[in-house]
Structure prediction request, 206 residues.
Amino acid sequence: MNLNLNINKYRDMRYNLFKWRYETGFVNKLFLAVGFAVLTAVLAQMKFYLPGNALVPITGQTFAILLAGVVLGKWGGVSQCIYVGLGVMGMPWFANVTGSTIGYLIGFIIAAFFLGIMTDKYVKSRRFSSMFPLMLFATFVLIYMPGLTYLYFYMGSLGVSLSLVELLMMAVIPFIVGDIIKAVAAASIAKAITPKRSYGREVDIA
Prediction:
């Protein structure tokens, strides 16, 4: 009985939190976006480079980006705009200070907006079985595609011509397992913290 009561309290708490986040005013949403920008910056400092690859580090920031959209909705994308914008203006919080990762930064913004829109629009997206593939898509398509495209031309500007295989070996293959693990973790958290009923204008109200 107590267990059921605690579960119901938790469900009500997460529902009220997300409903408040959805309905709250501009100032509060901006405050939350700045907070997630800072969190992204903190996790970006948790980085290490694989042997032989000094261009693209493995970091925890992708984890923050995947959760940004889930926790903040489309304002998760705003949080990444703030993160990227302040970094471009000189805030020393990017994982990599060279120009090789600019495409990934653009992908961060796109991915956070995408996950935020999906989370707020579809109740079913908040299940692990739906959120996990969405996060894989956000990671390997929305982040990697602009990241790899820019990296290819960046290396070309340095006089280094890369084949597709070389590009994938440099900036994709070594990171696949880690990115999948981060997507599993983020999707699991998303499942746990998101309400499974409507708090806004979902089109598949359960």
The chain has a mean pLDDT of 89. The longest strand covers residues 47-48.
